[in-house]
Design a protein that fits this description.
Strand content: 15-25%
Distance between the termini: 47 Å
Shape: elongated
Helix content: 25-40%
Order of helices and strands: EHEHE
Strand order of the largest sheet: 2-1-3
Largest sheet: 3 strands, parallel
Protein backbone atom coordinates (compact mmCIF):
# COMPACT_ATOMS: atom_id res chain seq x y z
CA UNK A 1 0.00 0.00 0.00
CA UNK A 2 1.38 3.46 -0.94
CA UNK A 3 1.01 6.52 1.28
CA UNK A 4 0.56 9.76 -0.72
CA UNK A 5 0.98 12.23 2.13
CA UNK A 6 2.98 15.39 1.51
CA UNK A 7 5.05 17.06 4.20
CA UNK A 8 5.78 20.77 3.97
CA UNK A 9 8.69 22.12 6.01
CA UNK A 10 8.72 25.84 6.80
CA UNK A 11 11.78 27.79 7.88
CA UNK A 12 10.72 30.23 10.65
CA UNK A 13 13.86 32.36 10.31
CA UNK A 14 13.51 35.98 9.28
CA UNK A 15 14.56 36.73 5.74
CA UNK A 16 15.93 40.22 6.25
CA UNK A 17 19.10 41.37 4.58
CA UNK A 18 22.20 41.66 6.71
CA UNK A 19 23.50 45.16 7.24
CA UNK A 20 27.08 45.77 6.17
CA UNK A 21 29.17 46.87 9.14
CA UNK A 22 32.88 47.53 9.57
CA UNK A 23 34.79 45.66 12.23
CA UNK A 24 36.20 47.69 15.11
CA UNK A 25 39.96 48.17 14.95
CA UNK A 26 41.91 45.51 16.84
CA UNK A 27 43.51 46.41 20.14
CA UNK A 28 47.29 46.32 20.23
CA UNK A 29 47.07 44.57 23.61
CA UNK A 30 45.05 44.31 26.81
CA UNK A 31 47.44 46.08 29.21
CA UNK A 32 45.50 48.82 31.02
CA UNK A 33 42.28 48.16 29.07
CA UNK A 34 38.74 48.00 30.45
CA UNK A 35 36.87 44.90 29.28
CA UNK A 36 33.08 44.44 29.41
CA UNK A 37 31.74 40.93 29.94
CA UNK A 38 28.11 40.17 29.08
CA UNK A 39 26.76 37.07 30.81
CA UNK A 40 23.86 35.55 28.87
CA UNK A 41 22.40 33.99 32.06
CA UNK A 42 22.84 30.40 30.92
CA UNK A 43 24.19 27.78 33.27
CA UNK A 44 27.87 28.27 34.14
CA UNK A 45 28.35 31.42 32.07
CA UNK A 46 28.97 33.34 35.30
CA UNK A 47 31.59 30.78 36.39
CA UNK A 48 33.32 31.00 33.00
CA UNK A 49 33.33 34.80 32.97
CA UNK A 50 34.64 35.05 36.53
CA UNK A 51 37.59 32.84 35.59
CA UNK A 52 38.11 34.78 32.35
CA UNK A 53 38.15 38.11 34.23
CA UNK A 54 40.84 36.84 36.59
CA UNK A 55 42.91 35.48 33.69
CA UNK A 56 42.66 38.80 31.86
CA UNK A 57 43.82 40.73 34.92
CA UNK A 58 46.60 38.36 35.99
CA UNK A 59 48.07 37.38 32.63
CA UNK A 60 47.21 40.24 30.30
CA UNK A 61 47.17 43.30 32.57
CA UNK A 62 43.52 44.24 32.08
CA UNK A 63 42.91 47.18 34.40
CA UNK A 64 39.18 46.75 34.94
CA UNK A 65 36.37 44.33 34.12
CA UNK A 66 32.74 45.47 33.98
CA UNK A 67 30.20 42.65 34.27
CA UNK A 68 26.62 42.70 33.04
CA UNK A 69 24.27 39.74 33.48
CA UNK A 70 21.19 39.57 31.29
CA UNK A 71 17.85 38.88 32.98
CA UNK A 72 17.25 35.96 30.62
CA UNK A 73 19.13 34.23 27.81
CA UNK A 74 16.06 34.62 25.59
CA UNK A 75 16.17 38.42 25.41
CA UNK A 76 18.81 40.60 23.79
CA UNK A 77 21.08 42.87 25.78
CA UNK A 78 19.26 46.22 26.01
CA UNK A 79 20.66 48.89 23.66
CA UNK A 80 21.25 51.30 26.57
CA UNK A 81 23.41 48.67 28.31
CA UNK A 82 25.42 48.12 25.12
CA UNK A 83 25.85 51.89 24.73
CA UNK A 84 26.98 52.22 28.36
CA UNK A 85 29.49 49.37 28.02
CA UNK A 86 30.76 50.76 24.72
CA UNK A 87 31.38 54.15 26.35
CA UNK A 88 33.41 52.60 29.19
CA UNK A 89 35.16 49.62 27.59
CA UNK A 90 37.75 49.10 24.90
CA UNK A 91 36.62 45.47 24.43
CA UNK A 92 33.35 43.62 25.09
CA UNK A 93 32.80 39.85 25.20
CA UNK A 94 29.38 38.22 25.14
CA UNK A 95 29.53 34.74 26.71
CA UNK A 96 27.29 31.79 26.02
CA UNK A 97 27.55 28.72 28.22
CA UNK A 98 25.61 25.67 29.33
Amino acid sequence: MTNNLTTTVLNPAAEGTAASEKLAPRLSGLQGVTVGLIDNHKGNSDVYLEALAELFKEQFGVARVINYRKDSQSIPTPPEVLDDLASQCQAIIHAVAD
